[in-house]
Amino acid sequence: MKAPFEIADLIFKYLNGDLSVEENKVLQDWLNEDIANQITLNELQNKDKMEESLQFFESIDHKAAWENINEQIENPVIPHSFWSFNKFFKYAAAILITGFVGYAFLHKKNNADTAIAKTKKPQTLKNDVLPGGNKATLTLGDGSVITLEDMENGTFKKENGVKISKKEGQLVYEILPAESNSTITYNTINTPTGGQYEILLPDGSKVWLNSRSSLHFPTAFSGKERKVELTGEGYFEISKNKQMPFVVEAGKTHVEVLGTHFNVMAYDNEAVSKTTLLEGSVKVGNGENKKLLNPGQQAIVGSQIRVRAADLEEAVAWKEGYFQFDNEDLTTIMRQLQRWYDVDVVNEKQIPDKHFTAMISRNNTLSKVLKMLEMSGELKFEIEDKRITIREK
Questions:
Q1: pTM
Q2: What is the CA radius of gyration of the chain?
Q3: Does domain 133-314 have CATH number 3.20.20.70?
């Protein structure tokens, strides 16, 4: 367990967009330990809550407060980065984050219960919904369909010179050397609403499929390119092969790569598709119009292609096991929850025009996610028969 001051430093970096990959994993582990930790982070991103807390902390005896915190935390060490902010912010934020994080460590359960109880009315969250998980179906070249979650680990199919096996939630394709010239067939993996899956393709490339997505691919790559077809959302780590570029067709979006890490979001109920590049280079097109992306850039494809700086953490948050909303509108948030929890929204066309900033584990039940959104104090959510009703307070 990390000390509160260490967690506080990670939260500082997260709010400032300076977290490394390793630090982000540590922060995610802490968030997953308890709902109180997630509430703590969400509180720190809520402007109104921050202002209330600032007023509160201005009214207390700071010396006594620090002494009380230090008595309960052994050997606190303040990282140098604490003092890289302007005088007002470092003063307010140091007190706020130390207080919030220290309190979460010492009184986790009480923190969660108290924060949830502060809503104006009792919450009505009937028939709670469990989070999604590793679920998918595989359609083989002969048309037969396999439900992967029902299969045990190990090889379950040999098809035209390719061994197909399941290994800890990953679908693995391996070409059998003695049969490498066999006829190539096509497979399709589909994740349902509330499902996700990882695939190791025959060339060594890895693909992570988000919920309500599919990948159509050959059991072995040949010719001038390695071509797959995607619907929904997928994260790709492509093995390098300059002689055989990797191509992703996702609706009207065409992505060509040599070897790289990138994410493609192309759901049919989203107005645009988004291709986000983390490493290497990709070329994104929609017909004659093409754009070359550099690491850290995102291509938004509609009738035109627009390139902008990407929020990499937000783009791949789903792959790392959490939702990340950066001033996201509630309509977009509800679509993500619908895909992961397999639920509907009542009066979907009348969702309030509200925006949220939060980082929430996808391992939470739906009620916990909605409770954290309710912390804004503006909305109330009800769940019944896998349907979400949204009410303004």
A1: 0.72
A2: 24
A3: no
